[in-house]
Design goal:
The complex is a heterodimer. By secondary structure, chain A is of the alpha/beta class. Chain A has one domain: 3-Layer(aba) Sandwich (Rossmann fold). Chain A has six helices and six strands; from the N terminus they run βαββαβααβαβα. The radius of gyration of chain A is 21 Å and the shape is globular. The model of chain A is unreliable at 198-208 (pLDDT under 50). Chain B has helices at residues 12-23, 50-70, 104-133, 139-145, 149-163, 166-169, 179-193, 228-249, 254-258, 291-300, 326-342, 345-354, 364-373, 403-422, 472-493, and strands spanning 2-4, 31-36, 41-44, 76-79, 82-88, 92-98, 172-173, 199-205, 212-216, 262-266, 277-285, 313-320, 378-385, 390-393, 441-446, 451-456, 461-466. Chain B has 15 helices and 17 strands. Chain B is of the alpha+beta class. The two termini of chain B are 37 Å apart. A six-stranded mixed sheet of chain B has the order 1-4-5-6-2-3. The chains are: A alpha/beta, B alpha+beta. The interface between A and B is large, with 47 and 69 residues. Chain B: It comes from Ostreococcus tauri. Chain B: Residues 378-487 form the FUZ/MON1/HPS1 third Longin domain.
Chain lengths: 208, 499
Amino acid sequence: MSTKKRTLLKVIILGDSGVGKTSLMSQYVNNKFSKQYKATIGADFMTKEITVDDTVVTLQIWDTAGQERFQSLGVSFYRGADCVMCVYDVNSAKSFESLENWRNEFLVQASPSDPDKFPIVVVGNKIDVEEGKESKRVISEKKAKSWCTSKGGLMHFECSAKEDINVTAAFEAVARFAVESEDTEPDVFLPDVVQIDAGPKAQSGGCC
Amino acid sequence: MRSRDDDAAVDVDADVGADAAVDGADGRNARFLALTRAGKPAWDSRGVSSESVTLCAAVQALAANAEAQGGGELEGVDYAGRALGCASTSTMIYVASSAEGESVGVLRKKLKYVEDVMTSCVTNAALVGALGKNSRFDVRRAMAAATLADERLHELATRGLRRDTAYVFDTYRTVGMSHEVRRSATRAMGDALRLVTKPFAGVAFGIGDSRLVTYVKPRGHRPQTISARDVMVLMNYARATSRSAESKKEGEDEGDATHAESFGRVCLPEFNPDGFMHAYVSYIEAKSGDTEAREGDEEKNDAVASSSTSRERVGVCFLTASAEALEECRAARDALEKRLNADDTLTTIARAARRQLRVSDVPEDVLGRYQVEHDEPLLHFVYNRPARQQHVSSAFASSVSDDRSVETITRAYAMMYENMTELDGTVDATTKPPMEHSAQRVRYERRKRDSVLACVGGDFEIYLTFKPSATVTVAVAMCNRLCVWLRVSEPELFLENLV
């Protein structure tokens, strides 16, 4: 019988429409990539079980809608998140600039107990795109890392969902980050024994 | 609001995994699930697995979609022949699935008890307080820290909600015995409870099926009674405790099992959902060594509630607010056992607790002609007294006493009960219009293997299962006669002076 500790981590993927959130999740969970773009409506989810050190981690990965008209529903899935993956397209300055909004929106909506220490991982996707062919890389790794540092040292990865570059490493870092944060959670709270005599209309007296 | 699968604002690919998770391995049995509003599993009747995680995510997506569309709570989903009932609190979502034809309403009613037992394990304060402050609060860790949490929920899901009529009628079951014997037991229990610091109640119950013999509360305490829902939580706790104790005692001699005891924390949600009290559960045993021999022949013919033991034993539970009261509870147990053995009352109580009321116990002049002339058409009955919060049910006739038949009939009662409580006025299988001010409501449903007659009066309810060959005339006539006899017999059937 396995003695490994088991835990569940809820991971939320955020980012502008078209940055490749669904592709990252699909590549990581199913090792599949589709060239066809299909906007996520509301939210999608997948689960994957991995092992981090001595802990079996079940990742419940939520892929939220990037399009604004679907975002109201996505917000309801922020509750109880253990980690956030903020995704931008290295070829889109706007998607990078939006990271600030995504991060702030999450911290407001999810209200984590310690926002400064909440595990957030920043992922720059589409590094496979060749310069001059479809678009041009506009966000350098240095610039992204600088921004992450300014936000308290957020972890940063550059990936390609299409070519499966660094995808697993990014998700495993997410899992490890969240597991380490989980260990600092306080012990389980269970209340005290009820005060029977202090109950409503309670009186002292003998037995029947 | 109710939602169908095609309303879900989640991608279909995700639902595929959820469907498989709902169906489970056997694709038939009911499944119960508790998850936080964050979509994280707290408990799964099939054990928390990655499959549970997928199902929880699907439920959270459906719940969010329901809220977004109409602002209402997700009540249920119908999918591929399975019904999913959902019940939400501010912090938790409870889910039941079934392919047995149960309505979403019936499933939601069951979930009320799943919520009760969940609360009894970790308290409302943990669920609402802790989850309110930190939505990442791990309910599974809280349950792991609670006493027998998993066993208690499994006991409820695997036996209680499927076969125990208490969960259908929201009233607890009682052991029938003479008024004098019950009064003696009540007095003795009251005296024993005086030995316990900060007492809440003393309860005596049948070991096999957790029917109540009696209970007492300290004089002056309010409320004077224990609510039926709390009694059911407590009996579920006692059953889980005894099962756990028996499994631990496997391999040891039988004598040790006799003195199995536990002292753990339990929350009674109706009394106070935010705090625990301590429950001491053990057994008292009749000392009449020749009991079996003396009454062996009679015993062979009895419908025995518990087959786990031939000893004359009764379960006892002392509830206290003191964490230091274990030794006092032991002393109370010993005093109670000694007192009830002094005049052999315990033997009488234990025998009554082992025996179930049978249709054949009903005097001949009550049912005789109908039961004999129509090939014993009555298979089972339940007599419910909501105001007393108690009911009695007969033993199932041998032809329907297997687990599957019992579960089928219990489900039929649940659906009938839902129909009877939903509708006003006369409920009739015929096309007669409802009589809005009728004092009595009657419904007769013919089914493949049996027929069920339900009759709701001003202060009682009776549900009877007949062979399918029974005519409406015979069923109604037997129901009427049985009602009269049960009403007269109430002093022996129910705990008195508790309301």
